[in-house]
Amino acid sequence: MKTIAQHVQDGISTLQDLQDALQTAMQLEFSTLPPYLCAQWSVNGSNDPGGVADIIQNIAIEEMYHFALAGNMLTALGGTPAIADAAFVPSYPTNVLPGGIPMARAVDLQPLSAEQLQVFMQIEYPDFPPVALTTAPATIGAFYDTVSAGFATVNPKIEPNANYVRVPDSGGSTNGGKITSIGDAQAAITRIKMEGEGTENSPDQPSGDVDTFAHYYVFKEMYTGHQLVQVNGQWSFTGAAIQFPSVYPFAQSAVNPDPSLPFNQALTTLLTDLQSCWTTGASCSISARSAGRRSTPSRATAGGFPTTRASTARAADLPRRRSPPRTSRTSAPRRK
Q1: Does residue 174 belong to any structural domain of this protein?
Q2: pLDDT (tens digit, 9 = 90+) per residue, 64-111?
Q3: Residue 328 domain flag
Q4: 217 domain residue, yes or no
Q5: Contact between residue 245 and residue 43 where contact means Cβ atoms under 8 Å apart
Q6: What is the maximal distance between C-alpha atoms in the chain?
Q7: Domain harbouring 135, CATH code
Q8: What are phi and psi of 275, to 5 degrees?
């Protein structure tokens, strides 16, 4: 399978390349979930006045949406998502994200910290190579632009009754994540880019009046400890303070017997159930109860994917984001 750089360099002109690119997109989006969720789970909920855990959870849920949208596009093309595979999940720490995207800072499973937020900003940086190389590597944003152009070039037949995962609508869309046209696919790609990396402007200067920023900006708000606000037409991280929460430290366990086995079993069940959402349309639950682990819907997976029927296709529902209260993005920063 081609790397993301190869897709960007060569373009996408065949159905097989388009399907392969969407499979890579699913793997890429999923690879962000373990580090983001580990950071969220490390937050001490009794001392999180800034609601940081909920903010990170919202980002993780949006990554689930992006993962689902890529899967929906793939099945709409007649492809089959390959998720229940040991190679689907990266081995952490890693300096290379799926598709061959290089990372200067290793992506690892760590408690929330300023250093980890820098890693997250590196992942989400808008249309900018994350590593300073002589030959700049292809960015995630450029990859999605290539996929969007590939839909236009290949002009593939869209299967209107393909199984799909229902995603809450955004930006005026009303199809729940179902892909019934090339326009639907390109709109889904635009959503993935805007919610993840943001605009093509400088990452510190988003365009337009916005209330919810792309992931890069939200992680930088946490990193700087201040909301990004617009003052006299300029954006700056000088808004209301975001207090860093207390965090539980953790490290690789040395307990005997190794607790990794039941976790690996739970993860295997998760991946198998996720794949079944698209391959069979069966009801799939992503709670870990089958492995005997305590289920924490509000802080982990936000519940299961109950299956409903739309037309003759089957759809699985994803959780909705939580909305912690925020101050106005266009108000003047507080002065002491």
Answers
A1: yes
A2: 999 999 999 999 999 999 999 888 999 999 999 999 999 999 999 999
A3: no
A4: yes
A5: yes
A6: 60
A7: 1.20.1260.10
A8: -60, -35
